[in-house]
Design brief:
mainly alpha; 2 strands
């Protein structure tokens, strides 16, 4: 199957998860309740994913110990960007947050250049610059009547999250090239995610209380939504990881830059027809800059291809 189609499946699935995430955070994790419960749940799902992969994969213990530790570290790093992401959802709309993840391919290229020997043409570099302009534009608050305001704090958080994701992608590709097995690498990465989740539950009382509260408050509904959301996330992650083995990391991440457009479309339709699930400001003064920003990001992607 063409790597482009595989890579494109990931942002579509993640866009659906983004809507789930905002719904869960706004309903169960805002304010004093915190998002620690969702962080722990997201990480513990890694154990189940590792068990499932381990059942159907041979040779998972045959790779070098150094590669195992690198992948476990990558799984642990995943928790870091999840924490930043969920915290930002508490204070910003999902349609603002998601376009910032278009910075991942830019950072992925830089890391790929230094550590994996990957290169891009001048035209592709121009495309990366255009993508950067798009994410900067979407961080400007145009809703103020007298002056514009750049959202420095959430932008800083999100660029850190993007850097972490890019590092994880480089680690995964480096180790997988060495051991030659996509599924073996996936097993150790998800196991690392689960291990760090258990450690957080044990040693971070605040997150443990929020996890227990969230499950007590929502019960079966929260559990079902989390299982569905994490299942879709894992499927999207696997598609993305597999695509990085077929094409340069930066190219795969650039395909994933279509995710903001998918999210914005879902947000607009959801606000109009399902406001009890998702509701954002979609009047012209707010919506138009987002559309322009996303068009700029897509234009940058076109240049890259």
């Amino acid at each position: 199957m063409n790597w482009f189609l595989i890579a494109l499946g990931a942002p579509f699935l993640w866009a659906i998860v983004n809507i789930f995430d905002q719904y869960m955070v706004k309903k169960y994790s805002v304010g004093e309740k915190g998002s620690g419960g969702l962080v722990i749940f997201s990480s513990l799902i890694g154990i189940w994913a590792a068990i499932f992969i381990g059942i159907f994969t041979t040779g998972i213990f045959k790779i070098p110990i150094g590669d195992k530790l690198l992948l476990i570290l990558a799984g642990g790093l995943s928790i870091s960007w999840i924490i930043i992401y969920l915290y930002t959802i508490e204070v910003e709309d999902i349609s603002f947050i998601v376009p910032w993840f278009s910075m991942v391919p830019v950072l992925g290229y830089v890391l790929g250049y230094f550590f994996l020997g990957e290169t891009l043409t001048t035209k592709q570099l121009i495309g990366m610059f255009v993508v950067l302009v798009g994410v900067i534009l979407i961080s400007i608050d145009f809703s103020l009547e007298e002056k514009f305001k750049f959202k420095w704090k959430p932008a800083l958080y999100l660029i850190i999250a993007c850097l972490i994701i890019a590092i994880i992608g480089v680690i995964f590709k480096y180790v997988t090239i060495q051991n030659g097995s996509f599924w073996v690498s996936s097993f150790w990465e998800y196991l690392g995610l689960g291990i760090f989740g258990v450690l957080i539950y044990i040693f971070v009382p605040k997150y443990r209380r929020e996890f227990n509260y969230m499950n007590k408050k929502g019960g079966k509904k929260i559990f079902s939504l989390n299982v569905l959301s994490e299942g879709i996330t894992i499927l999207g992650n696997l598609l993305s990881r597999y695509a990085t083995l077929l094409a340069p990391i930066a190219m795969v991440y650039l395909v994933e830059s279509f995710q903001p457009a998918i999210v914005l479309l879902i947000v607009v339709l959801g606000t109009k027809f399902f406001p009890h699930i998702i509701a954002e400001k979609i009047h012209k003064q707010v919506l138009l800059p987002k559309i322009i920003s996303i068009i700029i990001i897509v234009a940058g992607t076109i240049l890259l291809f």
